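pinning this so it doesn't scroll away 📌
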Amino acid sequence: MQPQSPGGAIARLRAETGVLQRRVERELALFGDAASWLDYRLYLCRMFGFLAPIERVLHENPDLASVIDDAELRNNKAALIAHDLVSLGLDRSQLGQIPRISVPLLDELPEALGWMFVVEASTLDAEELARHLAPRLPSELDCASAYLRCYGDEVEARWHDFSAATDAYVNRVAAGACDRIVLAATDCLIRLHRWLASSSATSSARASRVHA
């Protein structure tokens, strides 16, 4: 689902990363009618492996809150996923064994905002996925949807606030900041797609060995 926003940096991000976002969405897709609770748990494991290292690096950027004033609260989604995974039967001690994506140093604001764009855009897909899975996995969603419903009824409002803050930042700083944000978001999506595709291949190989 493409995030909707008026013109500015976010509009450019949407336009220039749209193809990559759709590739990532296909890797994460759980929109089939046959999705099981195991499929859902795998999805959460992959999102945990994506978000946990990103949030750790973003928390180390002291300037991020000067642009996104609630950045510290936003960058806490991995903890929600951990709650969901434990609710679905994963032992808390196993969380440390979940593979994680490699994240570069994000100590400059444009790069941090580029990666945060990808994280915040993913909440729009999470909301849509929650609606899709609710009638198919009702008991699982009742106890393990803290991440999918992390913003509750404020998903669009939180997206709008992030978009407006990012656009305002680009408008008040030196030229070139938007280019850097776009490059960082592109880098994030390329890494994420490669990582998801690799984990999908590994999971398929394991399944083949099990059924051989």
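📌 and the second one:
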Amino acid sequence: MHLFVNRRRPAFLLALTALVAAVSTAPASVVTAFNMNVNEWSSSTPLDKTNGIYPIGGSGAINGGFVVATAMDGDQIGLRASLRKVGLLPQTNDGVFTATYFAPAGTSGNNLSLWNLDGDIDLRGSSHTISDYTATLTFTDRGGLMTQVDLVASGLAPTNTRLGQASENPGFSFLSAVFPSFDPNALGVYSLDLTLVPKTFIGDTLEARINVDVVPVPEPATLSLALCGGIGLVCCRVRRARA
């Protein structure tokens, strides 16, 4: 006789099974999307320090191309790499958290790269400010050096921030601690991870990651040869089709 066999499944086990099934099929509370617009990325948004609005500013800001993570309460973060003062970069993604952008090597002068890192924190969908989160940026340079920065403790984000946006070049001097000996002409992969973990409330952790793969720019002669080769191949195919 097996004393611990009960041919009737206890009611609590049935309830537990149903609960596990419900949790496993529940939709994710944070939605991550790729190559998307953030809620707002506009040079015309006015600065409002009193109410924690620190917009991108500048001129000609172009939305799009972001990795965007949005919580059910409306809080949102976004990361991307962009072509400095020009527009968007080609990208791929892993379908989870991370997008990889392909940026050209080279400089626009003063040790600045041809690409920027763009970040967006938008908490206007809820009553939160950035002080309700532990907000961390993790930088990894092409040599593998990893540096974590607490946005509030470092003073990069005021405690009342509800909208915080920035577009920064890795060649800027204030980033030398996270990108030491930065060389805009050097090839390699840089990474950036933005994480917001709830601190004063129970809620969703927001995370977005990007890699920037710096690749060589084709020389004009090489590009011309490639174009001529492509045109020649098309002409050959046309001749064969006519024959």
